[in-house]
Amino acid sequence: MNDLCADIGYKSINHFGEELCGDHVDIVEENDNSTVVVLADGLGSGVKASILSTLTSKIISTMMAEGLPVEECVSTIAATLPVCSVRGVAYSTFTIIHIKKNETAEIIQYDNPHVIIIRDDVNYDYPKTELNIGGKKIFSSVIKLQENDVFVAMSDGCPHAGIGRLYNFGWKREDIIDFIETIAPAGYTAKTLSTMIVDECNKLYGFEPGDDATACVVRIRKREPMNMLFGPPSNRDDAERMMSLFFSKEGKHIICGGTTSSIAAKYLGKELRPTLNFERSDVPPIAELEGVDLVTEGVITVNKVLEYAKDYLGENEHYEHWSFKRDGASLISRLLFEEATDINFYVGRAINPAHQNPDLPINFSIKMNLVTELSECLKKMGKRIKVSYF
Q1: CB-based contacts of 82, cutoff 8 Å, min separation 6
Q2: pLDDT per residue over 87-97, tens digit each?
Q3: CA 294, 319, 176 angle in degrees (round to 5)?
Q4: Residue 355 has what DSSP assignment?
Q5: Residues 342, 225: contact at Cβ < 8 Å?
Q6: I want to staple 41 with a disulfide (CB 3.0 to 4.6 A). Which of 155, 174, 269, 279 is the partner?
Q7: In degrees rounded to 5, what are phi and psi of residue 347?
Q8: Would the pLDDT of 368 be above 90?
Q9: Quick one: 4-222 is in which CATH superfamily?
Q10: CA angle, 190 then 195 then 200, to 5°
């Protein structure tokens, strides 16, 4: 067993004037180390295309995850898709990236732009085998994974970007490769890479996309554990055990909350040094404690992190806010969203007397909900999450 994992992220933009996207991405985890990713592009745009692509990606990802052969998946798709009354065809292109045991990737491609692979910071020309399944020309490849491999699957809205505007023939494949080769070595997450690619497409379309455009990125990286302590234990006698478990774990350590950081300082026998650096007016300043990677305020800071996490899973518009700032919420966001792959939460159930002020919109249930919601968001980002309560 290796210590690699797949970081997966995608972003889509709709055809200008359409409410629904005709592209759909589906991600199904077979187990901790095997994942099926399907990007489907329905014929046309709008509602019909959305139904075609959603059905295609759902059926293929589910069947592949159950171990069924690609021939059976394709024949099921052909028999299932509704036929377009105008064109007389049921048509959805698709790209499948099947990560197996974090060791190999099986790539199956039908009529979408071919997957771009960046290996050692340059384009990797991988072998393809042509198959004929049910009259459809399908390309299949099996690739042994290496750390820092970047796979980019796209719908045809990406290479079509700029046609009739900046480029006569769209954003050509070699130009897209040049763009990805420039940004991939910086170590961005899969979600950020897909956002940068699609934002560039949107710009080339003059912000009025002539087609649905989707980029789905799979980045192979090493596992990175992270530990976060939030709130003191409900029973004071558990403080020693809580701190012992927290500090015994490998990886970086984040502590959120004034009382919690004071308990940690006492446990470590170190001085807690607050800073008065207000990077943002709505996020309290951080503190410093030897032996801890980051010390922040509690509920207000974590609530801001949750706000960033929800946006990250959606449009990723706040990326420029948290990607470089030095306030507590931004620093936590970078650690959890970009660095961590496995996150251990240590959550104290003590009720903070300061939060019992009726003028404050904070109570015990809000604090617990923050942890639950943040955990769910991080799971959707593909992180392994473990929560321990004290």
Answers
A1: 51, 52, 90
A2: 666 678 999 99
A3: 125
A4: G
A5: yes
A6: 155
A7: -115, 120
A8: no
A9: PPM-type phosphatase domain (3.60.40.10)
A10: 130
